Amino acid sequence: MFSFLMYMIIEAGQGLETGRGITIREIVGDHWDEFIKSMAFNLKHPLALLLAQIVTIIVVARFFGFIFKSIGQPTVIGEIIAGIILGPTVVGYYFPGFSENLFPAKSLGNLQLLSQIGLILFMFIVGMELDLKILKNKADDAVVVSHASIIIPFALGMGLAYFIYETFAPNGIQFSSFSLFIGIAMSITAFPVLARIVQERGIHRTRLGAIVITCAAVDDISAWFILAIVIAIVKAGSFLSALYTIALALVYLVIMIKVVRPFLQRIGELHASRENLTKPIIAIFFMVLIASAYATEVIGIHALFGAFVAGVIMPDNVKFRSIFIEKVEDVSLVLLLPLFFVYTGLRTEIGLLNELFLWKITGLIVLVAIVGKFLGSALAARFVGQNWKDSLTIGALMNTRGLMELVVLNIGFDLGVLTPEVFAMMVIMALVTTFMTGPALTFINKIYKEDAGGESVAKPVLIGQVVRVLISFGNPETGRVLLRLAGNFMKKQEMSEVTALHFSPSTEMNQYAIVQYEKESFGPVNNEANQMNRKIQTVFKVSNDFYKDIIDETNNGKYNLLLIGIGQSIYEGSALGRTIGYLNALFRRERFIKKVTGQERLFEYSAFEERNRYLFDGSNIPVGVFVNKKFTKCDNLLLSIQTKADIFTIDFALLVFENTDCQITIYDPNKIILSRQQQIQSLQRIMFLNAEKVNIVTASGMKKEQLQKYDLLFVSVLGWKEMLDSESVWLNYSPSTLILKDKRAEIIRKR
């Protein structure tokens, strides 16, 4: 009825058009052609073009970020590479038509504005991630190293500028402006990338980690203040003219530190929880951010400096900063910051370096950067008493430039201080120095690998031996159960040790979120340890490759047993891994249905093997994979001996027996034990002293009622495979199960 009414109104309204100069446009030609023209017009609309650019940039940036993260490099390297590839160097060179349609010159202004907003938010996060407490209690060593890491490369950079000024400096740019920008570009350190590398390497809680973080923090603050002065000098034309700008900047800093910061601190104390952090409160902090950036832009020292200062003066409450950073960083890091990388890539024309001479200059720039930052920081660290390994490690980390270098270079390019050729050379330098950090650290650790004193770190687990168990878990509740299981191997041994290992799945987690995440991850484990009245060690690291890092920790530590849960999978933890998992399942209809419905059976040997093969092959110590079925205690232990390769599991069963006085039933239908004298002797001793506690069953098969009376089952990997292949009653009714693998026992058996 209302549709008919609207139609009648339109019909009646058309009578009002008389005398208003309205003409009916007749469509000439095919209606399809008209539709295509309309679509083409819509595709070139500024908003549609900008959205297409953003989608393309995010997809390409995340893809290359994932690739470089997978090979142990910071994500930022891949995102910078993505920007260069989308620019004139690759796409613009090989697909000029596509590049012109997607990134026309007139559209770059919108892209630049959005990228600047992303940079402002990013610099705000950088300021918030700086923990000023470490600066208040900074060591003299860190001060010396951080200042040396600025002044040495700065001086070398100015010396380099002296030799390349005549050839590469733009016309109209004074030598002082050119040399100051080359100097600051050489002395910058990427604090966010460095902090994440330190966390990933697991040294953030060591003395070395504290020194490096302090050095980087001092370096970051000092470098940005120096950059602000350099920008003021460049814009003013001389140092004397820049004094007015510097004076205004000092007034601005006093207001921000003495007036704004106490006000924000009070708000942070009152609104530290997620529930209290309401939209009006968030609006206040964003208003401070925008006002600070606006003030520094008007003063003449760039909006990014104001965003950085706004982040530094935010309330120092850890919980507050963690919550606020979470709200900002997803938009800035995932959506807006990649726009800056691509915008930088669009300006980076590596094709301009088309002569050998230009590449020699590029090599010279990279060499000066490494000598100034890497060797300068390392020698300063050595001068204040650090050993050579720590000194070189500090130098490698301080040589990381990353995104911060691109920020400085873009400022210099916008001010006209850097030519396109020099800009391209400096971008290459930023990539090389950041890329080399990981390999350099690995090489240093390899050279200075500590001597274990000839003691094997992979001893077999034997009765009476001090047991050192490493438990690795993802889910905190899994960690609690694994600790409960580990207690059965060492209940009566005061000297035995347990280490709980947990990895964070993301290198992009900010340091304030890391603190809270670590506390939550180890909470259930620590509670269980308190109930057991046992002290444990905890190891928390940020990781790009869980399995590799678990193996490294296992083989480098003095452990003799690794316990993990069955739920870890190589198809988990990465988008590509999950995609491969689903594609693999597509070719197996039954598994695909179960995967989609969440009912995939864990008890398939192929699934079990794909989850744990890397650990089995790489570990130098026995590995136990635990299948939890509401495990609480071990009063009745069942040991399954199916093949000769299972003999080694007796050692583990007897170790539990020694520490818990549990009842042991050894299921040996093939009478394997009788052919092994060594195990006979150890069993005879145990059975002689505790005949009622040990029982050997040789009858074939076990019924459901028999299996359900046990608390824990020990079985080898091969024995587990046979159970799975036969789909026996054990699968459904067996108790909590520890699936054991000892690579050394198999080697001995083969011999």
Please, could you describe this protein's structure?
- This protein has 751 residues and is an alpha/beta fold.
- The chain folds into two domains: 130-335 and 355-446, Na+/H+ antiporter like fold, CATH 1.20.1530; 468-567 and 602-750, Rossmann fold (3-Layer(aba) Sandwich).
- It has 33 helices and ten strands.
- The chain has a ten-stranded mixed beta sheet with strand order 3-2-1-4-5-10-9-6-7-8, with helices on both faces.
- It is globular, with a radius of gyration of 33 Å.
What's the short story on this structure?
This protein is an alpha/beta fold.
- Could you list the spans in which at least 5 consecutive residues all have pLDDT below 50? 450-460, 568-605, 747-751
* Biggest sheet details: 10 strands, mixed
Rg for CA atoms: 33 Å
User: Helix coverage percent of residues?
Assistant: 55-70%
User: Could you give the count of β-strands?
Assistant: 10
- Name the beta content range: 5-15%
| Tally of distinct domains | 2
Question: How far apart are the termini?
Answer: 91 Å
Given the structure, what is the number of helices?
33
How would you name the oligomeric state of the polypeptide chains in this document? single chain
Strand line-up in the sheet with most strands: 3-2-1-4-5-10-9-6-7-8
| CATH-defined topology of the largest domain | Na+/H+ antiporter like fold
Average per-residue pLDDT, rounded, comes to 79
